[in-house]
Design brief:
271 residues; alpha/beta; Rossmann fold; Pantoate--beta-alanine Ligase, Chain: A,domain 2; 2 domains; six-stranded parallel sheet; three-stranded antiparallel sheet; binds adenosine monophosphate
């Protein structure tokens, strides 16, 4: 596993390879990231993982400050996996060397779910993903369905602009079905117990939605119940079509999307 600390070393090391799988991360490596790496390892000759906490996608300074960082531990896990050929650890200047302001804007129809609640977040994600793709030039990029809206927007943008394919990967969960996330490192045990209960509740909601005539009012009621039962803040609880992310009135081709806070940590999930 070769560690690439700047773009010169990256260009030199990657030049011979034209079947490259790329797994972009912000570190805090867990089994969710490892499942993306495994898939890349199966489908591509070489796998490169990036670790870069992109300040431009954080809409809150406090969130950026508290984001879990542990490069030493991350590198140890990646090395142990034996599935990673390169780890790219860029500095801010490697990514944002031209100081021009990004021109990325979201369409009005895309300003939904997390885009509505985290202003500027996806503009930052799309910008960094474009830059990383241009620098690395991978044949395939592996991204998780846990961040479904991110996967949807990045796939749409990158496949239109670059010769790369974005491959969706299933959400990996812990033993209690809580979706793995680097942000879970910021949770306490009782928070994880509640997260597991919320997952159970979502499974039930999804099951009962089938028989409901007015899904919107059913979900409003469920959202209130979740808020009252667990004393949590919820940004959204919505059923949306997986092809276009429009509000859905049927379970078919749809996922239930939630964003909520535990211990001031914002968690998302979809099923
Ligand atoms: P992050 O480091 O949180 O930016 O995530 C890097 C990549 O890992 C993104 O494509 C995420 O969607 C993916 N990812 C994060 N958590 C999971 C998970 N529990 N299961 C599958 N993929 C995940």
């Amino acid at each position: 596993m070769k560690i690439l600390l700047n773009n010169t070393s990256l260009f030199e090391s990657l030049r011979p390879f034209n079947d490259l799988g790329f797994v972009p991360t912000m570190g805090g490596i867990h089994k969710g990231h490892l499942s993306l790496i495994n898939k890349s390892n199966k489908l591509c000759k070489k796998t490169i993982v990036s670790i870069f906490v992109n300040p431009k996608q954080f809409n809150s300074k406090k969130d950026l400050r508290s984001y879990p960082r542990n490069i030493k531990k991350d590198l140890k896990i990646l090395k142990k996996s034996k599935k990673v050929d390169f780890v790219y650890l860029p500095k801010f200047k490697d990514i944002y060397k031209d100081k021009k302001k990004s021109k990325i804007t979201l369409l009005k129809k895309d300003k939904i779910l997390c885009a509505k609640f985290r202003k500027g977040h996806f503009e930052g994600v799309l910008d960094v993903m474009s830059k990383l793709t241009k620098i690395i030039n991978p044949q395939k990029i592996f991204m998780g369905e846990k961040d479904f809206q991110q996967l949807y927007l990045v796939k749409k943008k990158l496949e239109r602009t670059y010769k790369t394919k974005v491959i969706p990967c299933k959400t990996i969960r812990d033993n209690n079905n809580v979706a793995l996330s680097s942000r879970n490192f910021l949770l306490k045990k009782p928070n994880l117990v509640i997260a597991a209960k919320i997952y159970e509740k979502l499974v039930n909601i999804k099951k009962y939605i089938k028989n409901k005539k007015n899904i919107r009012s059913f979900l409003n009621l469920q959202e209130k119940e979740l808020k009252n039962n667990y004393k949590i803040k919820i940004d959204y609880l919505e059923l949306r079509n997986i092809k276009n992310l429009k509000i859905s009135s049927t379970n078919k081709n749809s996922r239930l999307f939630i964003a909520y806070y535990l211990n001031n940590v914002r968690l998302i999930d979809n099923l």
